[in-house]
Amino acid sequence: MNGGPRQVGAGYKSQYLRFAYPALAITAAVIVFPWAFTVYMSLHDWKIGQQREFVGLANFARLAGDERFLESIGHTLYFTVLAVLLPLIIGTAAALVFNERFPLRGLFRAIFILPMMATPVAVALVWTMMFHPQLGVLNYLLSQLGLPPQLWVYSPQTVIPSLVLVEVWHWTPLVMLIVLGGLASAPTEPYDSAKIDGASPWQVFRHITLPLIMPFLLVAAVIRTIDALKAFDTIFVISQGGPGTASETINLFLYLQAFSFYNIGYASAVTIVFFVLIVILAMVLLWLRQKAKWS
């Protein structure tokens, strides 16, 4: 006998751990080290081409008094709330429609999800042309309806709603697909009982459909919230954070600090604050997701 059961088990365990070492090394190199280095940089006053200087939490204290950064937080939250709620509402309505049986339903479903297949930069370039005050198709359509033209992304008052319009067009199909999955897995017995009891369509939706699809809606909300918070390419291509700083989100503020002003230490502090914000919001949504009961 080479040893007892414990020794044999320990030997097998050590052999299994050897297979995990490469994955742990890759994880450390790709995830742990970059974050540790970001924390290290955030504690320094570091500009590209200059000597770094340890400043402790001074970068974070500077953020607390930076009006431009605080405005970018407001812009990010405003954009996120609209870019999450509107796709949830429209996507749920679309899912209810496409869940019904009608001729060419598959074709219309395929057409509806086409925007989701396009890359964000391509979508942004197309919408940039559509937003043009003189040559854009949107103002042409408004003129055909007898409505006055709009400045869209060229006005501080309408730039964020206009950017949200692009997000809604691009990502509502994703919400629709998630909700459709919930509707497809819903039991039919409650609907049969409601039909016998003479419930109205609104009562069926409010008391049967909505509770059944609520877990799926929360999953879609988590995905859309994270995507909207880190949205960069669409906003950068269309408005570059303008006019002025009217659409400058945290991502754009971070980009400018790191790659335009070369304030690496300050940008690293922004990264950490932004990461904490995303984690808090994601945890709240996941908590709500856990509170929802699957039927």
Describe the 3D structure.
- The protein has two domains: 5-42, no CATH class; 68-291, MetI-like (MetI-like fold), CATH 1.10.3720.10.
- It is 74% helix and 1% strand.
- It is built from 13 helices and two strands; from the N terminus they run αββαααααααααααα.
- The chain has helices spanning 5-42, 58-64, 67-98, 105-112, 114-117, 120-130, 137-144, 159-185, 189-197, 201-229, 233-238, 250-259, 264-291, and strands spanning 44-45, 53-54.
- It has a two-stranded antiparallel ribbon.
- α3 (67-98) runs antiparallel to α10 (201-229) and α12 (250-259) packs antiparallel against α13.
Mind sketching the topology for me?
Layout: H1 5-42, E1 44-45, E2 53-54, H2 58-64, H3 67-98, H4 105-112, H5 114-117, H6 120-130, H7 137-144, H8 159-185, H9 189-197, H10 201-229, H11 233-238, H12 250-259, H13 264-291
Antiparallel strand pairs: 1-2
